[in-house]
C-alpha cells in the first residue's frame, strides 16, 4: 500500500512505475483529502472527512466538496488521467476550500462562492506548478494551495464582500513571551494537534482520528508521522518556543508533513532517510516562526509554506549525497535531471 | 497585423516563425511603447506617446526617451536583432522612465539621471529574465520593469537626493472601507482608466486614446482589451472592492493586460482561450490587493506584478489542458519544453 | 593563482577545466573563509581568520569552526570531492556561524549549539541551491548563507532560548535623514569597511587586513576589490545616502563582492568586463536599501542579498551581450545552457 502511494506521488512531476489507479469518480474524490498526507487511499480519505466532521460537519463538506470540484475541473480540462485518478488533483482544492471556510466563515454565501472559484483556479495553478517544478524533478506538494490561499487571505481585507472582520490582521511581528516549560498534558495534546493543524483543526481527537486514517493506509507512514510529530515538539521546546504555541500544534504540523515526504514517499524508508527526514522536520519547525514573521506585516498566514520550502530543499539536495541514498551516481543518475525526468507530455 | 505581433512576441523566449521586423531606428523606438500592449506597430506607439502627452508632455518625453535609450543600449551591447527591431527592448525601459517621472517628480534633474541609468540597467535585467525564463519557454513580459521599478521605489526613501517626499510611504495594509455601489459614471471611467493606468495615468481620455491605438493595430486586440477591462470591473465589484478604487482604474489594469496576453498574443484567439483569458483577468484582479498588501509594509507599489504572475501561471499551465488548446500532445508537444523551445543562441 | 580560483569557482555549478585541489583537511578548511572572496587559497584564509581575531578572537573561532564543520559535514555526506577540497563547502557555513555570533551573542551556549546545527543544515541548503541553479549554469554564491541566516534571524524572536533581546527588531522602514556630505575621514574608513562588513566587522583595520589577504592571493583581485569599494562609495554618495551609512561600510560591501565576481571570477578580467562589473557594483549599492526596506518589517537583515541578486542577474544576462564578452555565439555557445552546463552527476 505504502509502496503504491510512493509510486503515485513520484508520478507527480517525474516518471516512475505505473501507479495503481483508483477506479470511479467517488473513490478518486475521496483520495483527495488522503493525498494531503500523501496517501492514495479512498478509505483513508473517508476517515479524514469523518475527522473533519467531528469538528464541524461543514468543514467536512467543504473539504470533500473542494476535492470533488478540483478533481472535476481537472477532468474537464483534460489533465493527465494518472494525476486525476490518484487524487493528486483533489488535495490542493480540498485544502483551499477548507482554509476559506475556517478563515472567512463557513456559513457565508460569499465564502461558498469564493471557495468554488478557488477550486477552479487552483487547478490551473497546480498545472503551472507541476510544469515549473518539473525542470528540477520536484513534486508540487501543497505549493498551489499555499500560493492561492496565501494570496486570497492577504487580499481579503481589500474586498468588503469577502472579509468578515472589520479590521486587517496585518501587524509587525513581536518577540514572544510566556512560559516555555511543557507539562505532560501539553505534550500529549501537541502530539495529536501537530496532525490536526494540517487541516486547520485544533482539537486533539481530530488529530487522533487523522492519525488512525494514516495507519489504516500504511503502518510505516503512521510511525513516520509519529516520529515527525515528536521531532517537532522536541525542536520547538529546545529552541524555546512558548508552551502554548507548542500545545496548540501550530509549531509542529509542518514537521509531520516533512517527515512523511522525506521518509517513505519521495525517498525510500530506511534508517538513513529517517534521520535525514527528522533533520528536515526539525528545520521546518525552526522555519515556521520565520515564515509567520515574514507574512505577518501583510496579514498572511504560514499555511504549509515551511513544509513546502524545506521539502524542496532536502529533495533537491539529496542527489548530492550518495552516502545517504546508499548508491553512487549510477548510469541512471549520471544523466542531468532534465533528461531522466522529462514529464510526460500530457502532465 | 495581430498575427504578426503574436509571432513577434512569441519570439520573446521561444522559437516561432520569422517575425516581421520594423526597419529604421525611429520606428523601432516607437514600437517600444506599443509593445507594452504587445503590439509591434510604430503607429500605435506614436498614438500611445500622443496619449501620454495629452496628460503631460513630459510624460510623453520620458516614455519615448526611455524606449530610445533602452533600444539603443541593447543595440550597443549586441542583443539579438529580432528583439531590438520589434520593440521588445524598448517597452520595459519606456515604463521604467515613465514610472520614475510619475513617482519621483518629472521636473527634477535627479529623476532624469536616474531614469537614464535605469534604462541601461533594465536592459541587463531584461537579458537575464529572458534567459532565466527560457527554461520554461515563458516570455519576459514586464517582469524586468517590475523588478527594477519595484527595487528603486522601495530603495528611494533611503537616498536623500532621489526621494522627493519627507517621509516614507511604508505602512501596514488596512481593511478597506467606503461604498461599494458603482454608479454609471464610475463604470464608464473605470472602463477607460483600466487602460490608462497601465501607463500610470488616471484620466479617462488618455485611456480612450490608448484604446484607439490598440484598435489601430488590431481590431481583435482592441475587442479583447475591452473584454478584459469589463471583466476587471465585474470581478472587483463582485468581490466588494470600494467603488472609488474601481473607478480610478487601479483594480482593473492588470485584467486588460492578462486578457490581451492570453487571447491572441501567446495563445491563439479562440472562444476557448477567450474564456481562459477572462478567468485569468479575474484572477489578476483578485490578486491586485494581495500584491499591494505584500508590498505596502516596505513602501512598494503593485506595478504590473499581478499581470506578470497570473500570465506566467496560466501560460505554464496551458500545456496540461489539451482540451483547451484543442489538440492532444502531438509529436512536437511530446518533447519536453527545454528541447522544443531552445532560445536562439544570440537571444 | 587568480586564474586558478576562477576555475575552482567555475566548477561551482558548471563544468570547466580541472581545478587545482588543496590537499589536507586543514588547508581545505582554511580555504573556506577565503572563498567568501572567491579565493581558494589557504594562506588567504589564514589571514582572514587573523583579521577576524583582531576584532574579537571569538569571531575568528566561530568563522574557522563554521568552515570546519561545513567541510566535515559535506565530506561525511559524500559531496563531490572537488567542491570539498577547494573550500566551496566551507564559506557558507563560515558566514553562518559568524553571523550567529555577531547577531545572537558569541558567548551564549545556545548560540554555539545553534551555529553548529546551522552549519549542518547549510550544507543541505548548499546542495539544493547548487542543483536548482545548475539549470541556468549559475553559481550558488552566498545564497545558501543568505537563506539560512535570513530565516534564523527572522525566526529568532519567536524562540525564547535563542533571542537575546527583549523585543523584536521589526519596524517599518523610514525615510533617511542626516547629512550626505562626505568628509575625507569618512571616505577612507568607508573604503576599508566596505571590505570588513562582508564579515560583519565595522573596524577599518579588519578591512585593511582582509584586503591584504586578497592581494596575497591575487594582485588583480585586490585591485578589482578596490575598484568595487570606490564604486560603492561614489554611487551611494551620488544617490544621496547619509554619510554615516556610507562611512560604516553598510552601503558598499555588496559592491566589492559584485566587482570581484563579475571581473576575474566568473567572467575574465578585461576592460570591458571591468566596466560591466562596476555597473553591477553600482546596481548592488542602489539595491541595498531596497533589500533592507523589504526585510525590515519582518525584522530581517540585508546580508549579502544585494550581491547575490545582482550577480545572478548580470551573469544570466551576459550571454546575450556578444560584444561584451568579445565573441559571437560560437558552436559551444549555440547549445542551450542546460546542455553545455550539465553538472557532473555527483555535484
Walkthrough of the structure:
Mean pLDDT of chain A is 87; it is low at 1-19 and 328-347. Chain A starts with a helix and ends in a 7-residue tail after the last helix. In chain A, 66% of the residues lie in helices and 0% in strands. Chain A is globular and about 45 Å long. Chain A is mainly alpha-helical. The first copy, chain A, has helices at 2-10, 25-35, 42-55, 57-77, 81-84, 91-104, 109-134, 143-155, 184-196, 204-217, 219-239, 243-247, 253-265, 271-295, 305-317, 322-325, 331-334, 337-340. In chain A, helix 2 packs across helix 6, helix 6 packs parallel to helix 8 (143-155) and helix 13 (253-265) packs antiparallel against helix 14. Chains in contact: A-B, A-C, B-C.
Roughly what is the average pLDDT of chain A, rounded to an integer? Answer: 87
Q: Structural class per helix/strand content of chain A?
A: mainly alpha
Count of DSSP-assigned helices of chain A: 18
Largest sheet of chain A: none
Rg value of chain A = 19 Å
The rough form of chain A would be described as globular
Instruction: Please give the most extensive interface between any two protein chains, plus how many residues each contributes.
Output: A-B, 48 and 48 residues
Ends of chain A: how far apart? 24 Å
β-sheet strand percentage of chain A: under 5%
